[in-house]
Amino acid sequence: MVNNMIKNTLSEIELERLFQEKIDAEQKIEPKDWMPDAYRQNLIRQMSQHAHSEVIGMQPEGNWITRAPSLRRKAVLLSKVQDEAGHGLYLYSATETLGISRAQMIEALQTGTAKYASIFNYPTQTWGDMGAIGWLVDGAAICNQVSLQRTSYGPYARSMIRICKEESFHQRQGYQIMIELAHGTPAQKAMAQDSLNRFYWPSLMMFGPHDSESAHSARSMKWKIKRETNDDLRQKFIDQTVSQITFLGLEHPDKDLVWNEKREQYDSGELDWDEFYSVINGNGHCNRQRIQHHVKAHEDGAWVREATAAYNRKKELKQTVDAA
Amino acid sequence: MTTEKLELFEVFVRPKRGLDHKHVGSLHAQGREQALEYARDVYTRRTEGISIWVVKSQDISASQEDDNESFFDPSDDKPYRHATYYPLPKEITTM
Amino acid sequence: MTQSTQNKVDSKQDLINYVVRLGDDAIVLGHRISEWVSEGPFLEEDIALGNVALDYIGRARMLYGYAATLSDDGKTEDDFAFLRDERQFENYLINELPRGDFAYTITRQLLVDLYNKYYLLALTKSADPTLVAIAQKARKETTYHCRRSTSWTLRLGDGTTESKQRMQLAIDDIWGYSHELFESDALEQRLIDTGVAVDCAALKQPWLTDVKAIFEEAGLNIPQQDWAVRGGRKGYHSEHLGHLLTQMQFVYRSFPGANW
After folding, report:
1. Is position C260 within any domain?
2. Which positions in chain B touch C48 (Cβ < 8 Å)?
3. Does A86 touch chain C (CB under 8 A)?
4. Partners of residue B13 on adjacent β-strands
5. A112 Cβ neighbours under 8 A, 6+ residues apart
6. pTM
7. pLDDT in tens, C122-154
8. In whole angstroms, what is the distance from residue A89 CA to residue A143 CA?
9. Residue C237: inside a domain
10. What ipTM was estimated for this complex?
């Protein structure tokens, strides 16, 4: 009680200083801790966007479960997509610790006030896209998530650790699909090249705008919500992908790619940001479809949720009557 | 896929025999039974456990961070509760 | 060829055909349940349905894999799934019906899961050791499936007026496909005689007792007016199966001889 009274008399500025000290000392912030409102809002935005991306991300791959070209691939793809539902769920529950309900988050998604990764606005047209998505899209996501295992908010960091552990198979199964295709018949190899060409650049854009353009970057770094900048993570991904493309024997989609001796990194061609923003702003092939799909599943399921609630009420009532 | 009609449950999993149940996350379900079934599907897809507990989130009472000083600091000055407080004579090699 | 080697060849072919049709049941139903991905009423249920679908696809792989081993002619599990046509598939019709709404899926699962509960138990007593091993693994999964479909049936039957209506509608639409689950053809009869196959006629009574008890508790009814559609085991299918196979087989067939 006395402590509470002392705390309550602390000024907002003092509280924020203590908060920043914790962060600087690499201590995790936990749900009941004092935190600046902007930190909370920033996390809600980023974590719910991350959760929505997992959930919307089920659709482009779900699109191929019924067409997978072998029973083994069918099982692998299904379990991967199912994992994504699980990851969405881990992230929703971690975000709920910040005082927002899943229902509110879903509503924000469905009304367009919350975003999901724009990569899922691209259509999946061939089986090769299952390879490219697992390898490149999950690969880019993992780069980001590995870094987020050290994020300052405890529940977020813990769900990232769990997700990274499970996702390591996602990228590998994707790359394995690419290996089979690239080393298969000429038609399969062409399929692999086509998928690589379509998904390479959008994958790079998953890291977000350049640091100089990123609205949330600086403060997120100070609060250690983000641990590495967009450009650093993107560079890491570009560098590690080069030898993977070479091994496949496919052509690299970036014609301007050259090794920079001095930086010991690759210099790469400029990304087409106009296209990126165009897709984000509604001109992707699947923007409307993804949200409509989500809304329809939600509405189709309304009677199920109502029925379970009604059933439970009846059961509880019966228990009270029996007890009386 | 909103869950406005469902309850929030916390999930605890015992990873293997001899270890404690550990908090792994939460989920939405209607009633304990369904919560248990979903916990199995959501949190043990890779045989991460041999036993699951689910508890309604609202049934958990948590200590407050603000109370930490009164809660936990008093045990700071009781080193005599730890074995390392009692040095053994050199001659005694195991105890 | 002597009479006895001829018999041996025939009985091996019988066994292959039997194993393949059990595989057909599993893959067709697994495919249907997998159509629920990202369509579930909420996220937790999406994941749960995914697990059930994975169980069935896994079951199909074990069965087709066994058929491939028995055939010993270079065929793989995938050849059975992807290279046979509608007329060659011998799954029970109930498995191929479209996924419908959630009530329809739950009703089908209840009838099939309870059927499998008894079928797999009987199959663990088969004279064929591989089938015994497959049945033992599948039984554990089915125990869990039964729990799910039973509690969902109770919930939806005794939930709201709408959920009860939807359940009853689904039962009325599916019931007529349940009869052939308990009928054996000549092939199965020969394998029943050698102790390999399950005599499914014997499962009807215990199955019906279970179904009646659950329906009664849920306030649902077995349709008054009975009807029956048959033909799955003869490859005589509804029009739905062809579309399912078209989708499932298209990539595999477009690239003959390719590896994936």
Report:
1. no
2. 37-38, 41
3. yes
4. B22, B52
5. A291
6. 0.91
7. 999 999 999 999 999 999 999 999 999 999 999
8. 20
9. yes
10. 0.95
